[in-house]
Amino acid sequence: MFFTIECNEEMWTEADARAIRNPVYANSRRGRAANQLGCLGEVAAEHWMCRNDILFKNETYLTTHDYRLPCGITIDVKTKDRTVPPRPAYDCSVPEYNHQHQLPDYYLFVSLQRDKTFGKSLDIRRYKYAHVLGAITLANLESNGKVWRAGEVDPANGTRFWTSCINVRINQLEPLKHVAARWLSPQRTAGAPG
């Protein structure tokens, strides 16, 4: 169902190097920790795409999306910090402040599983597992997502939203095997005569 990878030194080192190079954005609630989270999620997404022979151009230097496929499809990775493995009813979020300028064709969601014994440490090794969950098109996110405003509380799980966002449950995402087939299909036909 999910693609789970045990994080390793190579992943941590690459993600930490990226996080250090990235600016800390004004809307970031977690500062450098948010950069680590996002960069490790991107590294995990890249592992999944490479394992599935999905060709991509890394465009993480842009703020509009993270990756572009040869056919032009754009993908943005959204990563969530969890202390437990993800479950189908758990939420995936796209913050509204990102959604105003990030309009990729797809969002690919990743959950990083954090070891609670690290406490508030910023050691990137606190993330032990990366779970690539699935993807959703921008259109499906907008039509099927639940909009939450900053300060609202989700009665299902008690989450108080620190910023406005659009949420979908993991079980609303397109499964990875379908995503891989969809993203590979244009690559196979890109050179075919029209």
Radius of gyration: 16 Å
Helicity, as a percent range: 25-40%
Q: If strands are numbered along the chain, what order do they take across the biggest sheet?
A: 1-7-6-4-3-2
Low-confidence regions: 190-194
- Strand fraction band? 25-35%
- The number of distinct structural domains comes to 1
Largest sheet: 6 strands, mixed
Tally of DSSP helical segments: 5
Mean pLDDT: 91
What does this structure look like?
It is a single chain. The strands form two sheets. Strands 1-7-6-4-3-2 form a six-stranded mixed sheet. Mean pLDDT is 91; it is low at 190-194. The protein has one domain. 30% of the residues lie in helices and 26% in strands. It is an alpha+beta fold. It is built from five helices and nine strands, in the order E-H-H-E-E-E-E-H-E-E-H-E-E-H. Helix 1 packs across helix 2 (32-51). A hairpin with a 5-residue loop joins strand 3 (67-68) and strand 4 (74-82).
Task: State the gist of this model.
The chain is of the alpha+beta class. Helix content is 30%, strand content 26%.
Which helices and strands occur, and which strands form pairs?
Elements: E1 3-6, H1 9-21, H2 32-51, E2 57-58, E3 67-68, E4 74-82, E5 91-95, H3 96-99, E6 106-114, E7 127-137, H4 138-144, E8 146-148, E9 165-169, H5 176-189
Parallel strand pairs: 4-6
Antiparallel strand pairs: 1-7, 2-3, 3-4, 5-9, 6-7, 8-9
